[in-house]
Amino acid sequence: MTRTMRALLGASALCSAAVAAHAQDTTLTIATVNNGDMIRMQGLTDDFTEQHPDIALEWVTLEENVLRSRVTQDIATQGGQFDVLTIGNYEVPIWANQDWLLPLEGMPEDYNADDILPAIAGGLSVDDTLYAAPFYGESAMVMYRTDLADEAGVEIPDQPTWDDIRTAAEAMTDQDAGIYGICLRGKAGWGENMAFLTAMANSYGARWFDTEWQAQFDSPEWTEAVNDYLTMMNEYGPPGASSNGFNENLSLFQQGKCGMWIDATVAASFVTDPEDSTVADSVGFAQFPNKDGVDNHGNWLWSWNLAIPSSTDAPEAAKAFVAWATSQAYTDMVAEEEGWAAAPPGTRTSLYENEEYQKAAPFAEMTLNSINAVDTNAPSVQEIPYTGAQFVAIPEFQGIGTAVGQQFSAALAGQVSAEQALQNAQTSTQREIDRAGYGE
Amino acid sequence: MARAVSTRRKWITTVVAWALALLIFFPILWIILTSFKTEAEAISTPPSFLFFDWTTENYGTVQERSNYFRHFWNSVVISIGSTVIGLIIAIPAAWAMAFVPGKQTKNVLMWMLSTKMLPPVGVLVPIYLIFRDVGLLDSRLGLIIVLTLINLPIIVWMLYTYFREIPVDILEAARMDGAALRNEILYILTPMAVPGIASTLLLNVILAWNEAFWTLNLTAANSAPLTAFIASYSSPEGLFYAKLSAASTMAIAPILILGWFSQKQLVRGLTFGAVK
């Protein structure tokens, strides 16, 4: 055999081996958001790839709003760029109804889907079929400074009313010392101030639409909720609150400038972290307030979930990854590697039954109570034609919610009156909902 | 006396120019400073300017979490590729418009510019669908094509402006000496227009480097440039300002260095023909 022949044979054997090896490889492209829990998961994926050596992972991490538009565009056009998506519980039912997501059936036996908190699972299911697996979940609650409350001589009950909150905010405010009784979201956006204001309105007994899809911003409940919000923020809130979102309020609270902050439960782990928070050892928790006489704690529920788009060409590998990342075993691994306080919260009952977690996370019980108080099928005490929580689960809500949020943010900045903002919200919402053909 | 007034005016002009330059540069300086702070320091009020515990921890974290060099290489290929292809198309086009203008030349130039007036989101879905069908999604080639088309009007306009400054007699002399069209453009026009072409090239590399709409919307894992690298550190729920600043500093550093060394050409290019 000549040297050339041997070289050719060798090269062809190498090529065959390479092709065979390549044929075994599946690469999953995972679109995700940038937050502490997701970043931690990326760091722990060696465990998954060791279990599945034939699956490689590629990450596309984007800011929440960019990710939402990027992923929506890809899934709506069946672009097939992603195999696993990180999406919120707002998108899951809408996309599942469009057949854009694969149902999560046939998960591994040890997955234990029954362990998922019922409120969370309910928001991710259509006709009792799970379409996304929760990675972490949150509701909203009151976080307050116990030292300031003691100094001011006020007590915040575990289930406060808005009157309790207003009284405490007044007592804790010391503007000369740069301490503001209450910090709430003011930045315009359906996921910013409208997440809070919708939950607040829910707790006042308000609703976005009546059963005929007529907007309800002219109702006394909305009027009272918005006026109380503006009064509290103008009298006891920080300056420039109309541009404050989650991060800005987190920063203010961590620096000891807020007496109370009502926001996502996931913030509890940040404000009690002594590395970043100057008030870590003096934070108390209470459930989202309700108006006296209204049995509704706001109904705020958000979860970041892993879903598989129907356009993926690797559904089994994607399912294996989703099962791994949202399993009890993953939570145990996080606890072992980084401690129980780092475990992704708000998804599994077993986590809240774990004594070690309860010890490591003083906010665990209140978080669980807040999540359990949510009913996404009945976010308002009045009859409604929609589901949702701090949002209305219709595709048009992003646009409608942001337009309304701009009105209330402008009212907080003093650019329009509360009355005018409510009237504008009513007009624009009704126009959009009519245009979309609801209630016909 | 006249000299005193002139010196004073010079001083005032210098101070105003420096003040303006610092004002414009301040956001970038702030990003660089923040990248050396801890997350807690990055959000503290009142903010600390220079007196804080400097740390390079954020750079380490960013490097650990992301494949910077892959994003960097994608940025280099996409920005240089789109600019070079744009120049290859634009030089003959600008030559034709500058030296052999027709009745519709001005209209064609205005029409080319009008394509810049369309908001990019208006054509996002059609382009996304075309790219999906021809397999160009998440590819560097796809981005090179899009960025070439986007920046082409600017390249043509800039080159047209430079070419108009070149005396047509020189080209005619070459033609009389028997130079073919190709040789006229390659050996007569291009060498004379090198400063203009260089500044067009630099400006378009910067524009392509910083382009964030198409580079975020048409890429996923493989061809994402540094704009996507920065976007991966932005978060509405969690404080990552210091890490975001470190990522931003790493993303703008190459183009800042390029801009610093080529500032003379850039300024010359941008002010060419402005004063006669």
Automatic annotation (TrEMBL), chain A:
UniProt key word Signal: yes
Family named by the database record: Belongs to the bacterial solute-binding protein 1 family.
Coiled-coil portions: none
Pfam families registered for this protein in UniProt: SBP_bac_1
Keywords linked to the UniProt accession: Signal
Protein name: Sugar ABC transporter substrate-binding protein
Main location: periplasm
InterPro entries assigned to the protein according to its UniProt record, in alphabetical order: Bact_solute-bd_prot1 (IPR050490), SBP (IPR006059)
Subcellular localization, as worded in the UniProt entry: Periplasm
Position of the signal peptide: 1-23
GO cellular component: periplasmic space
TrEMBL record, chain B:
Membrane protein topology class: Multi-pass membrane protein
Entries under Pfam families matching the protein: BPD_transp_1
Signal sequence region: none
Listed transmembrane segments: 12-33, 72-96, 108-131, 143-163, 184-209, 240-261
Keyword annotations: Cell membrane, Membrane, Transmembrane, Transmembrane helix, Transport
Keyword presence, Coiled coil: no
Family: Belongs to the binding-protein-dependent transport system permease family.
Protein name: Carbohydrate ABC transporter permease
Lineage per the UniProt record: Bacteria, Pseudomonadati, Pseudomonadota, Alphaproteobacteria, Rhodobacterales
